[in-house]
Amino acid sequence: YKKWANHETEKRAVIIYDTMWHSTERIARRYFELLDKADIPVELLNLQTNDASAIVTEVMRAKVVLLGTPILNNKMLPRMGGFLTYLIGLKPRKRHALTFGSYGWNRAAFQEFDDSLKAAALEAIGPGRYFQYIPDESELEVLREDVARIKELFA
C-alpha cells in the first residue's frame, strides 16, 4: 500500500483492452508481442474476462499502461468507460499511457478516450493508435514506434 500511496511503479507495462469483433484484440496482442520481444515485462488483460479490481492492481504496479477499445454507437465500449471511471477516481500518477482501438465509420469518440488519460493523471506517451476496421500487418508496423518510446522510458 505504501508503494501505491507514493505512486511508485515497476519496470513493467500492462495492456488493458475490450474488443467487439477482435480488431482491438489484434492490436493489443501485437503490442504484447512487441513489448515481450523488447524484454519489457508485460501483462495482457481483457476487460471481458478479468475483474476490474485485479486489473487496477496491475495498473498500480506498472509504469506504462496501454488502453484499447473499439467504438460502438459513437462511444467507447461500456466496460472500458466503466473501467476508466474507476481509474479516474484513483488518479495513479507517475505513469505513462497510450490509447488504441478500432472503429467503423467515425473515430471522433476516441477524443473522449484520450481525454480520460488526462483525467486519470496518466501522461500520454504519444498519439493514440486508431485503425479503421481490421488492421492488416502493414498497418500494425506503426506500433513499433510506440514500443521504442516505451523502451526509452525504462532506459
Explain this structure.
By secondary structure, the protein is α/β, with parallel strands linked by helices. Helices cover 43% and strands 26% of the residues. Strands 1, 2, 3, 4, 5, 6 and 7 form a seven-stranded mixed beta sheet that branches. β1, α2 (23-37) and β2 (42-46) form a beta-alpha-beta unit. The longest helix is centred in the N-terminal third of the chain and has 15 residues, at 23-37. The radius of gyration is 14 Å and the shape is globular.
Key terms:
155 residues, alpha/beta, seven-stranded mixed β-sheet, 43% helix
- Binned strand content: 25-35%
Uncertain segments are none
Structural class given helices, strands, pairing? Answer: alpha/beta
Pattern of helices and strands:
HEHEHEEHEHEEHH
Radius of gyration: 14 Å
- Mean pLDDT over the full residue set: 90
Total helical segments = 7
- What is the straight-line distance between the termini? 26 Å
Percent helix: 40-55%
Task: Summarize the biggest pleated sheet.
Answer: 7 strands, mixed
Shape: globular
Number of E-state strands = 7
